[in-house]
Amino acid sequence: MEIRKVQVTGGSSYIITLPKEWTKSLNIKKNDQLGLITQPNGTLLVTTEITGRQVQITKEFDVDNTTEPTCIYRCLIGAYIAGYTIIKIKSAKKMPLFVRTNVREFTDVTIGQEVVEETDTSIIIKDLLNPVEMPFNNTIQRMYIIVKNMHEDAISALKNGNKMLAEDVISRDNDVDRLHWLIARQYNMILRNANLAENMGVTLGMATNYLLISRIVERIGDHAVIIAKNVLNLIDKDIDKKIIDTVISTGNFALQIFKKSMESFLKEDIKASNENIESVKKLAPLYEEINTLALPQKGIMVISVGYIIESIGRTGEYAGDLSEVVINYLIGGKN
Known about the structure:
Number of strands: 8
Strand order of the largest sheet: 5-6-8-7
Pfam family, one: MazE_antitoxin
CATH topology of the largest domain: Methane Monooxygenase Hydroxylase, Chain G, domain 1
Domain SpoVT-AbrB: 8-54
Number of domains: 3
CATH class of the largest domain: Mainly Alpha
Organism: Candidatus Argoarchaeum ethanivorans
Helix content: 55-70%
Protein name: SpoVT-AbrB domain-containing protein
Shape: flat
Number of helices: 12
Radius of gyration: 25 Å
Oligomer: single chain
CATH architecture of the largest domain: Up-down Bundle
GO molecular function: DNA binding
Structural class: alpha+beta
Distance between the termini: 25 Å
Strand content: 5-15%
């Protein structure tokens, strides 16, 4: 840390000199303008980014030595989440077909990514989304609605033996993933550009809690998919109706905990969050009852019921974790 003395000029203006090495590294010259942003902890951020425009950062991939199709796809997702705004893919020879296929899949599952230039040996992907147009709070609420409906429909598919509904639940997982990746991306972009946080109306602490909430909601979505996949194994099977009824009631109870967790977040209600955490304990006896009922079942039925009840349990536990994050967010992280 460099220590600088504050000087006063004209009787009212406070002046502090800038480190020489820092000004040289950013090519700052006389009469250049700098932005000053007051942080929630009282510190002052000095930045050269004063236009409010998105900072453009580029990531390049050379695919000449890449033979594994999934590798380039994972690298593209990694670059997207890291916050790169331009992704360049190049090859010394004609671009392999699997790379072009992976690029198409990548632009399909991400938000705002489009191919803006393409030749036989190169592809350039650019981010066309203004992060300010996708506020964290709106994205979280959209994730919640999708995941809540996934869970409700997975339980409904079990109740009514609806194969198409269970399969639809599984397909919706991609929508949850792309929203979670967007929040992770925006969080990393804020780490690089404090102006973006100000433009989005959030602090770093708020962005961190949004990321934590997003991750929990995404995991609850994953368990809705597990429930739906195992419901497919039980459709048209001769399974005890009492088991089905108990699984449905337990699933609905776990869903209520999830709903209340999100409501306490949206309403900023610490008391409700705390009560919700306590309600998670009530799930344990219900698991034991279902496990006892399922023991006489055979083969795939007992295994699938086990997976379903485990995922219902994880849904309730994650909902409790969500309430804990909400309390932390409201007490400290929000500021």
